[in-house]
Write a structure and sequence with these properties.
Largest sheet: 7 strands, mixed
Shape: elongated
Strand content: 15-25%
Number of strands: 22
Structural class: alpha/beta
Radius of gyration: 30 Å
């Protein structure tokens, strides 16, 4: 896309670039008495030279000040002539922020900060370190320019997270004044949830789509800055956003277009895992009882985990994990969780493990909690460590045999987790028991995608006919329950703990 530009300055500075990507509409000068017929030869074309009054009559995208020694003088003169300040930039700013697709200007930032305020946004993932390109090396943007009064600064309570790869030479520690934290890997934090995903460096269509696809479900809003009237702009205009549960708003920024996306899927389902008839309490409508291990049996009147894609036949060995597998493969609720026929999360402070409250967790409370946290778990129990508990319950030799199998499986299937597995078993003195959690779909999917390849491969390696009756035959289920902790140890999830009512 060719931009219409004005070059401000005379002499050798005009020839600092070949300007083949732009259309030069004029060369500016501060001289008030310049003749309107005066032209300068620039890159094989005759370009008119005009003063400030003449510039006000022209249409252009930017005034590029090529004479750095006169920058302040020229900038103030143009701004006093009511030329929008976002259009008045230095040559270096033009090359870095505009031509090289990292476009920042203070006016757009003010619009963005107003959106953040209006939408009650508390947590922003700034993929391109957009705010680091701002007019200040702190969060204070107010009263920046000599002409316009910029009243909005980055709020003190806004959680601002940035991404800067370790090999990025343009990361500077002073940006820690702006960001709460800067990570070196986008993949490592997308399991968290953000109110706003900020993508301000313009990209190809495929790169935009890959970013949205990778981060889908981990944000409420996303803002993409796109080059106006480009092929990418036209491509993104024609995508099926409704099929992705996304509401779309197109906003015209100063020199680009913003695509504002809102993730519009908010349903909640908590599955009450049952393996026998039970007189369940009165529960909110989001609770759905399911028969774990139904496996074609007549059952006791509940929907079973033996429909669709399922592993219901493994229930005697892996316990409630057959129901969780079914939830993973056959449901699509945005917020999903588990309870047991006799265990339910309750809405009170986690100052104990067990509660006698009947205030079962409801949808409104869950939505409120997941604004500040990524996952709701049963309060951790300081029971020594998992290894000691299982040794006492199942016998030393048997547990060591199973531990070796699981360690080998994790070494083969998920080697990055081998040490966290050993640490969680033997050195970590708390655990989140009973496979109870409530979280967003993308977190649940990430956990199940990690857990079940380990569980199913372990099942292939254990000689089940040689196992005794329960509890030994249920060892994979017990180990599956224990695997939550090593997985959590490798994630950057914000955890909310709640007590449980046991009936």
């Amino acid at each position: 896309m060719s931009r219409n530009i004005v070059l401000f300055g005379l002499g050798d500075e005009l020839y600092i670039d070949d300007w083949s990507q732009e259309t030069i509409v004029a060369v500016g000068t501060l001289s008030p008495d310049v003749k309107t017929s005066k032209n300068v030869d620039l890159n094989g074309q005759s370009v008119p030279v005009t003063n400030i009054d003449g510039l006000k009559k022209l249409t252009f995208d930017f005034i590029i000040i090529t004479d750095s020694s006169q920058f302040n003088r020229i900038y103030i003169a143009c701004a006093q002539a009511q030329i929008p300040q976002f259009k008045i930039i230095s040559y270096d700013t033009y090359i870095h922020h505009v031509r090289n697709k990292v476009e920042y200007n203070v006016d757009d930032e003010q619009i963005l900060l107003k959106l953040i305020n209006d939408k009650n946004i508390n947590r922003v993932l700034d993929v391109d370190l957009y705010f680091a390109d701002g007019v200040s090396t702190t969060r204070n943007r107010a009263n920046y320019a000599e002409i316009n009064d910029y009243g909005l600064s980055i709020p003190d309570d806004l959680q601002l997270i940035g991404i800067s790869p370790e090999n990025n030479e343009e990361y500077w520690p002073i940006w820690d004044n702006i960001y709460d934290r800067i990570y070196h890997n986008l993949d490592s934090i997308l399991i968290q949830h953000f109110d706003l995903l900020l993508i301000m460096k313009t990209r190809s269509t495929d790169d935009y789509i890959q970013l949205i696809d990778t981060s889908y479900g981990s944000w409420k809003y996303a803002l993409l800055q796109i080059e106006t009237d480009s092929d990418t702009y036209n491509d993104l205009k024609n995508l099926d956003y409704a099929g992705l549960n996304l509401k779309v708003t197109w906003k015209q920024a100063q020199n680009s277009t913003w695509l504002w996306l809102e993730y519009d899927k908010h349903d909640t389902e908590i599955y009450v895992i049952c393996h026998k008839p039970y007189n369940l309490p009165k529960l909110p409508s989001i609770y759905h009882p399911i028969h774990a291990g139904k496996n074609g049996k007549e059952g006791f009147g509940l929907p079973g985990d033996d429909t669709g894609e399922n592993i219901s036949f493994l229930n005697p060995y892996i316990n409630e994990l057959t129901a969780i597998y079914w939830m993973w493969k056959n449901t699509n609720a945005e917020i999903i969780g588990t309870a047991h026929y006799h265990r339910f999360f309750v809405n009170e402070a986690a100052d104990s493990y067990i509660s006698d409250s009947h205030s079962f967790l409801d949808e409104g409370t869950i939505n409120q909690m997941l604004q500040d946290y990524d996952i709701i778990l049963r309060r951790s129990v300081p029971y020594g460590n998992t290894e000691d508990c299982l040794r006492k319950h199942l016998g030393y030799d048997f547990f060591e045999y199973i531990k070796k199998i699981f360690r080998n499986v994790i070494h083969d299937v998920a080697p990055d987790y081998e040490y966290s597995f050993l640490f969680a078993l033997s050195r970590h003195n708390i655990g989140h028991a009973f496979n109870m959690y409530v979280t967003r779909r993308h977190v649940f999917d990430a956990y199940c995608s990690w857990l079940f390849p380990i569980i199913l491969e372990a099942a292939n390696r254990i000689d089940f006919p040689q196992l005794q009756e329960p509890p030994h035959s249920r060892i994979i289920g017990f180990m599956g329950e224990a695997l939550l902790m090593p997985w959590l140890m490798k994630q950057r999830l914000r955890i909310k703990e709640l007590p449980v009512r046991e009936l």
